[in-house]
Amino acid sequence: MHPIVWYISGHGFGHASREIEIINALRDRRPDIPIVIRTGAKRWIFDLTLRSPVDFQPTQCDTGVVQIDSLRLDEAETVRRAAAFYADFPARVEAERAVLASIGPALVVGDVPPLAFAAAHAAGIPSIAIANFTWDWIYDGYEPERFGAPWLVERIAEACAHANLFFRLPMWGGFEMARPEVTTDLPLVARRSTRDPMETRRALGLPCDKTLVLLSFGGHGLKGLSPAAFDSFGDKYVAVLTGHLEMSQAARESRRGMIEFDEQGLYHAGWRYEDLVAAVDVVATKPGYGIIAECAAHQTALLYTSRGHFIEYEVLVQEMPRYVRSQFIPQDALFAGEWRPYLEELLSQDRPEPADVTGATVAADEIIRRL
User: Fold this and answer.
1) How far apart are CA 320 and CA 257, in angstroms?
2) Residue 302 · residue 277 · CB < 8 Å
3) Is residue 253 over pLDDT 60?
4) pLDDT at residue 263, as a whole number
């Protein structure tokens, strides 16, 4: 059986988490298909959440966006790194073509490094792009000509255009190179908990009679939260943290209105992050495809703040009310701890209709059919 080679962007957790769901769904149906993963993403998330072994090959397949922290990014450095990566792109494509030739895959899947599709095309291997955005669209928002790379967007778009099929996720942007006849729109791909929310609360020592707010700001962390962010919760709200926040010593020592977990420790104890998302009432975060999809899957409300100049943000903010109750909180209110009026406004909203979150199984079935 020839393998599938899966290229996954190293930008954040969202690309990895949704592709893991698709790989798990595919392996549930066809455990005999070997899978090779080539990615710059952290290995631990794969080791802890994939349900069957894969050949994991760390590699830089794109450069993503340079984050200062979860809420700030560096536009100039983002373009500089992308320009350096794509300046010698033909040589990178040839090197990756040789890798694919040595593996001999039946198919290449990418979320959504342009290198995957250019190398697959050079090797004569069909490829499928799965994403809610394309990198040419993202970089175009930074006007790379300002930083001496006017050719960058066109080069990335040309590479993406080599994909034979595009599986487009909701809340999408870009895809100008994708012809309608080779584009399939998928439902949301989302991690889904199999546990009862109240059982999760009891097992993890979370109060069952409080409104729980999960702070979810990704692996880049969040710095500078005031102790008032937790003191102001009073008796009604409890903040749940999972180890990616940098707080003052005063905030950690007070621990008032706050319960903290180690995320990897949760996984090792048999829990998954989506169990927490399902068990809480609100997730406080920056908008990203993955966390919106997971909140939609569990009908968890979403309190969000701005995240710097990232063109995807506008699309997500526009589209997310279709899937989740959502409320904006300005960054100054977030850091000062003035959360309660925004939480109360959020929780007063009506729930939207339950979202279709079967994208992983739909994608897996389509991939198998095309094999």
Assistant:
1) 28
2) no
3) no
4) 78
Domains of the chain: 4-187+358-370 (3.40.50.2000), 197-347 (3.40.50.2000)
Q: What is the pLDDT of residue 255?
A: 53
Vertex 288, ends 286 and 294: CA angle to 5°?
Answer: 105
Task: Give the H or E element holding residue 26.
Answer: helix 14-29
Total Cβ atoms within 10 A of residue 348? 9
The sign of the CA dihedral 301, 303, 309, 314 is positive
Q: Three-class SS of residue 190?
A: coil
pTM: 0.94
* Among 57, 2, 46, 1, CA closest to 23: 46
Q: Quote the mean pLDDT of the chain.
A: 93
Pull the structure tokens for residue 202.
Answer: 């009891």
Q: Residue 370 contacts by C-beta under 8 Å, 6 or more apart in sequence?
A: 107, 126, 128, 165
CA–CA distance, 154 with 187 (Å, rounded to integer): 29
Distance CA 111, CA 104 (A): 20
DSSP class of residue 322 equals: G
Identify the pLDDT of residue 307.
86
Burial class (CB in 10 A: 0-12, 13-18, 19+), 221: middle
Question: Which helix or strand (DSSP H or E) is residue 76 part of?
Answer: helix 75-87
- Give the largest CA-CA distance in the chain: 62
Q: How confident is the model at residue 219 (pLDDT cuts 50, 70, 90)?
A: low
Q: CA–CA separation, 96 vs 90, rounded Å?
A: 10
**Nearest residue to 212 via CA among 317, 320, 303:** 303
In terms of Cα–Cα distance, which of 265, 305, 261 is closest to 287? Answer: 305
Higher-confidence position of 13 and 358: 358
Instruction: Give per-residue pLDDT as tens, 90-147.
Output: 999 999 999 999 999 999 999 999 999 999 999 999 999 999 999 999 999 999 999 9
Q: Write out the H or E segment, with its range, that includes residue 172.
A: strand 165-173
Tokens of 322: 């279709």
Q: How confident is the model at residue 262 (pLDDT cuts 50, 70, 90)?
A: confident
Residue 11: strand, helix, or coil: coil
